[in-house]
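Postdoc handover notes: sequence design on the structure in folder B. Input tokens:
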């Protein structure tokens, strides 16, 4: 992994999205992202979750971007759980209003490229449930392949740098 990535927060941009830090967005939007589908996945209140994500970034264990379209936070996407063995795991949440517009795929494509080019990862993982067809399709469209899952009830997808790519 390339540690210089953590010297200052990496801003990214796609055709329709700006990817930057989560802090500073309206509380209602952050609450929706952090309590995906109305059931808290983090078990932390929003301010504590923001503090945790920033701490993990400083410790070089995670990078989480807020996804902004036309000035509105539409979701989050990032690398979670460290970078052991030059492997990163991506995760994402889109606010309900912004699903099924191709924004997740657009953001994930940008961070996958960032992972291979800037972080110099050798593999990127993603976990989702079989029922989350939108996520499965987005991962397949991004070139992720179904792997052998090590988590019950979750599908594991793996992505490797394109052959011949320079890292």
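Designed sequence:
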């Amino acid at each position: 992994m390339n540690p210089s990535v953590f010297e200052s927060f990496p801003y990214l941009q796609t055709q329709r999205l700006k990817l930057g830090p989560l802090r500073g967005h309206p509380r209602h939007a952050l609450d929706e992202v952090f309590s995906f589908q109305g059931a808290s996945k983090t078990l932390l209140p929003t301010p504590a979750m923001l503090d945790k994500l920033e701490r993990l970034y400083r410790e070089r264990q995670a990078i989480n971007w807020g996804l902004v379209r036309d000035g509105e936070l539409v979701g989050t996407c990032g690398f979670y759980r460290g970078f052991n063995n030059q492997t990163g795991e991506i995760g994402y949440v889109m606010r309900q209003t912004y699903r099924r517009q191709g924004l997740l795929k657009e953001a994930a494509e940008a961070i996958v490229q960032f992972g291979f080019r800037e972080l110099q990862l050798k593999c990127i993982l993603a976990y989702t449930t079989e029922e989350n067809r939108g996520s499965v399709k987005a991962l397949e469209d991004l070139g992720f392949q179904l792997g052998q899952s090590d988590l019950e009830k979750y599908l594991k997808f793996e992505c490797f740098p394109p052959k011949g790519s320079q890292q």
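Context for whoever picks this up: The chain has one domain: 3-159. Don't rerun without checking with the PI first.
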